[in-house]
C-alpha cells in the first residue's frame, strides 16, 4: 500500500479490501460473471474493430475533450476507474508511467465512471497520486456505449477511430495495443462514428414508457404499465460488502434501504423490483445475493444500463416510485429517509 494513502482517510482502506465476489456460474452472456479480465473480454467482443463513440468529456479542471474530433487524427486511450475501486488505485502509478511514455503520441484520459462518486473524491485521488493525464468524470453515457462492466476498464482506440482493445489488466495486451495505436496510420478521411445513444428522459411527473426489466427467474415486467403503483430499488449486490470499509455510509444506506424495502413490500399493494447495474454484477451474482440476503423482492439486472439512465440514477441506493398511471412520482436518493411516507403519498394519489 502506498504511503501516500496515509493522507487519505476515506481511501486508506481501499487497497486491503477483498476482490469483488465472482459468479460460480459464468456463462457466455453479456452479463457473464467471472474475474475482471473475463468480464472485460466479454464486454469487448462487440466493440473491438468497431467505430468508437463520439463524446465530449468534461475534466475536473473545467476543460473539455472532444473525442469525436480526435478520431482519425490521433489515437485515444481511455482508462475507466472509480475511487472506490482498489485495483484502479493500485494501477494509478502504472497509468501515470504510460501517460509519460505515450502522452505525446496518444491522447490519454483517466475517465472516472461517475457511479456512486463525488467530484471531491475524484480530485483527491488525482492529487494524491499526482496524475499527470487529464481526469474526467463520465455522466454514464460513454460507459454505457463502451459496455462498462468492470473497473478498471481500459479502452484503446486507434488513429483510424476504431476500437483496438478492451481489457481490465495493466498487462502485455494493453501495452501491445498502445504500441499498435501509437504506430498506426492516420485515417485518410474522417472515420464514421458509432451512433449516439438515447439520452436520459424521465423527470418527475413524466409518463414512463418503453422500459422493461427481466427478473433473474426469467419474468419480463413492463415499467409504468402495470395498472398498479411500482417501486424500483436501484442497487448493486456488492454495495453492502465491498464498500463496507471504503464507503461505509453508502454500504449502510444500501443495507437500510434493502431492509426497509423488504418490510414495506409485504403490504402487497405495490409492485416492487430491485434493479442492479451491470458493473461487477451478473445474474448469477444476483441469485447468490437473493439467497444470502433472503430477499423476496424480485431482482433484475439492467445489463445495458438503460433503466438506470432513464431515471438518471448515478448513486446507489435509490428508489423510484411510479403511480398506477405510469407517471414518475419521486426519486429517493441514498440520504432520503422518508420512504415509508413517500409510499403513503403514492397510495393516496
Provide the fold topology.
Blueprint: H1 36-44, E1 56-58, E2 64-66, H2 67-70, E3 76-81, H3 86-102, E4 107-112, H4 119-129, E5 135-137, H5 141-145, E6 153-157, E7 163-167, H6 172-183, E8 212-214, E9 220-222, E10 230-235, H7 239-246, H8 248-264, E11 271-276, H9 283-293, E12 299-301, H10 306-310, E13 318-322, E14 328-332, H11 339-347
Parallel strand pairs: 3-4, 4-5, 10-11, 11-12
Antiparallel strand pairs: 1-2, 3-6, 6-7, 8-9, 10-13, 13-14
Helix pairs in contact: 7-8
Question: What would you note in describing this structure?
Answer:
With 349 residues, the protein is an alpha/beta fold. It folds into two domains: 3-183, Glutaredoxin (3-Layer(aba) Sandwich); 212-347, Glutaredoxin, CATH 3.40.30.10. The chain is built from eleven helices and 14 strands. A five-stranded mixed beta sheet has the order 5-4-3-6-7. Strands 12-11-10-13-14 form a five-stranded mixed beta sheet. The longest helix is centred in the first third of the chain and has 17 residues, at 86-102. The chain is elongated. The N and C termini lie far apart (54 Å). The relative contact order is 0.15. This is Redoxin family protein. Residues 1-26 form the signal peptide.
Amino acid at each position: 500500500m502506498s504511503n501516500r494513502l496515509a493522507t487519505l482517510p476515506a481511501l486508506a482502506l481501499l487497497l486491503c479490501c477483498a476482490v469483488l465476489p465472482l459468479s460460480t456460474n459464468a456463462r457466455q452472456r453479456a452479463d457473464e460473471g467471472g474475474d475482471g479480465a473475463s468480464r472485460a473480454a466479454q464486454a469487448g467482443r462487440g466493440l473491438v474493430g468497431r467505430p468508437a463513440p463520439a463524446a465530449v468529456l468534461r475534466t475536473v479542471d473545467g476543460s473539455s475533450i472532444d473525442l469525436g474530433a480526435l478520431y482519425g487524427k490521433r489515437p485515444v486511450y481511455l482508462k475507466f476507474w472509480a475511487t472506490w475501486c482498489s485495483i484502479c488505485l493500485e494501477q494509478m502509478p502504472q497509468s501515470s508511467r504510460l501517460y509519460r511514455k505515450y502522452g505525446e503520441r496518444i491522447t490519454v484520459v483517466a475517465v472516472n465512471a461517475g457511479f456512486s462518486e463525488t467530484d471531491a473524491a475524484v480530485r483527491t485521488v488525482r492529487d494524491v497520486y499526482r496524475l499527470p493525464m487529464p481526469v474526467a468524470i463520465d455522466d454514464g453515457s460513454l460507459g454505457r456505449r463502451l459496455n462498462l462492466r468492470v473497473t478498471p476498464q481500459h479502452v484503446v482506440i486507434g488513429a483510424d477511430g476504431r476500437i483496438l482493445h478492451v481489457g481490465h489488466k495493466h498487462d502485455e495486451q494493453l501495452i501491445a495495443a498502445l504500441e499498435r495505436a501509437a504506430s498506426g496510420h492516420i485515417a485518410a478521411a474522417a472515420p464514421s462514428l458509432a451512433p449516439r445513444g438515447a439520452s436520459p428522459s424521465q423527470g418527475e411527473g413524466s409518463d414512463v414508457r418503453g422500459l422493461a426489466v427481466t427478473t433473474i427467474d426469467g419474468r419480463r415486467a413492463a415499467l409504468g404499465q402495470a395498472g398498479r403503483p411500482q417501486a424500483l430499488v436501484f442497487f448493486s449486490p456488492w454495495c453492502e460488502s465491498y464498500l463496507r470499509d471504503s464507503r461505509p455510509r453508502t454500504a449502510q444506506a444500501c443495507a437500510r434501504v434493502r431492509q426497509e424495502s423488504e418490510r414495506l413490500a409485504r403490504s402487497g399493494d405495490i409492485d416492487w423490483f430491485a434493479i442492479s447495474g451491470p458493473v461487477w454484477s451478473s445474474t448469477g451474482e444476483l441469485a447468490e445475493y437473493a439467497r444470502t440476503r433472503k430477499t423476496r423482492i424480485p431482482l433484475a439486472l439492467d445489463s445495458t444500463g438503460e433503466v438506470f439512465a432513464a431515471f438518471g440514477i448515478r448513486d446507489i441506493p435509490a428508489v423510484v416510485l411510479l403511480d398506477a398511471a405510469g407517471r414518475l412520482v419521486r426519486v429517493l436518493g441514498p440520504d432520503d429517509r422518508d420512504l415509508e411516507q413517500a409510499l403513503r403519498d403514492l397510495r393516496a394519489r
